[in-house]
Amino acid sequence: MNKPENNMSLTGDAPAAISTTQKIATAIGLVGLFIMVLSIANVEFPNKTLFLILSLGMITAGTVIFANDAYLGKHAGIKNDGVWFKSNTSRGFWAWIVGISLTLFYVILYWYPEYLGLREDGENTGIIALFDPLSRLISGHGASQWFVYGTLYTLAILIFGYKFILKYRHNKYEIYRTYSVMFFQLGFAFLIPEILMRFNQPYFNPANIWPLNYDFFAGYKMSEFFTAGNIGMMMFIFGIISIFVITPILTYKYGKRWYCSWVCGCGGLAETAGDPYRHLSDKSKFAWNVERWVIHSVLVFVVVMTIAVIYSYLMENPGGGWFTKDIFLWSSAGFLTLIFALIMIFKREQLAKDAKMGAIGYFAIIMSIIAINYFSGNYRIFFFDGHQLRAWYGFLIGAAFSGVIGVGFYPIFGNRVWCRFGCPMAAVLGMQQRLFSKFRITTNGGQCISCGNCSTYCEMGIDVRAYAQKGENIVRSSCVGCGICAAVCPRGVLKLENGSREDRINSEEVLLGNDVDLMTLVHQKSERTKD
Ligand code: SF4
Ligand code: SF4
């Protein structure tokens, strides 16, 4: 007798979670992870090198087998089947387990590294000792918790990058930019700094730019640069050029995507390991408002903290010739005033009312704090000591926000929580992208069938469909140019472009499907209305 069909849904049953091969692959990967857990529990392995290779190898093999089975046997094209049905990708039981495990890992990593086996006096134990052989091989030193983290982080970008490339293999843009983030993570963020340590040079990741790298101007870091001879000086100068020359030029030409989706390690992890969670981003207008206030507040915090830190450094090390703490302070105030004035004079019509109010408010507060403290002779230029401000920033933003919430909560809030709500680098690049860049996503509105794939898979919570339906260019500060909206669109509506800045923001082209004749009519009509 036939089994009765109880499912009334037109689309049939929910897709099976994972195949048998994928289950075996998951088990292999978990055994690899289990070796690490055993090492945390201080199980003594007879041969650390062998067990480290075994652990990393099994994690890699498990992911590769899983990815091959999930994508290679199928036609090229986006495969997001069943994301809203699987527990791990729909905020179900496994999502919480993954989220809580990641969060715990970050808490121990940042605040209790001794539980991972870090020993200040004597030989490391636990998982840190397991990584000692690899660390000695690359940097000549024993491992630290940051080496363990850096290795796992890099491995995650490489193996999930492989998975991502298979999934999006029909799309050249996605393939190239994934190779790019894999390259920058492995070479710039992992190997170069470790190899520099081998030669007793300062730890320096050339791809980590201030303000993301909030320690770049910290007193201890500047002392490291200035005492390391020519190479230290070159690093310092390269860091400054990255902030004031490379970043503005590349953002002008390509938008913030050159960094957020092609170079940055945070973006790299979000795009690869975080890819299964991209649809979880909040698309509401409320989230958009929170995003703008929070990310710009973090930016103000990092600017204030950096000014205070450099001011303290110059006060404690007054031998810098003409470049005294006072000259630094007033040139910083002058620079901020110049930026503020330029935006208000030339770009104010592109700012929403709350953005204008926010900018004026923040500017007034920073300037009055500088003035009050300076003229009252208080060396703590922002009421607090620069070192203290840096410590708070490191705790609140550098550790709690970017690590614990930013990655730990991937399975709950989506993969770009940090990039969207917290990263000050994204705030700087986003401002420039919105006001002074050639980048935009063009929309061929007439082709849009309103399926909503683009909005669903936009990790930054942008309602892409709302723009597409109107044939309006997407020029949003938060857009990281990942290109996924264009990749998942079944109608080829969206295109990431760098072009003339003329008419880049075209919010007038509403509901017309880019019909040129109709547009002419609208322009004539609006001219008549003005008359
Ligand atoms: S709008 Fe498109 S390119 Fe921009 S962040 Fe969203 S999905 Fe990525
Ligand atoms: S994915 Fe394409 S067709 Fe679907 S709503 Fe977005 S732009 Fe329109």
TrEMBL record:
It comes from the Bacteria. InterPro entries: 4Fe4S_Fe-S-bd (IPR017896), 4Fe4S_Fe_S_CS (IPR017900), Electron_Trans/Redox (IPR051684). The chain crosses the membrane at residues 24-43, 49-72, 93-112, 146-166, 178-196, 231-252, 293-315, 327-346, 358-376, 391-413. One of its GO terms (molecular function) is metal ion binding. GO terms for cellular component: plasma membrane. Keywords: 4Fe-4S, Electron transport, Iron, Iron-sulfur, Membrane, Metal-binding, Transmembrane, Transmembrane helix, Transport. Residues 439-467, 470-499 form the 4Fe-4S ferredoxin-type domain. This is 4Fe-4S binding protein. It comes from Antarcticibacterium flavum.
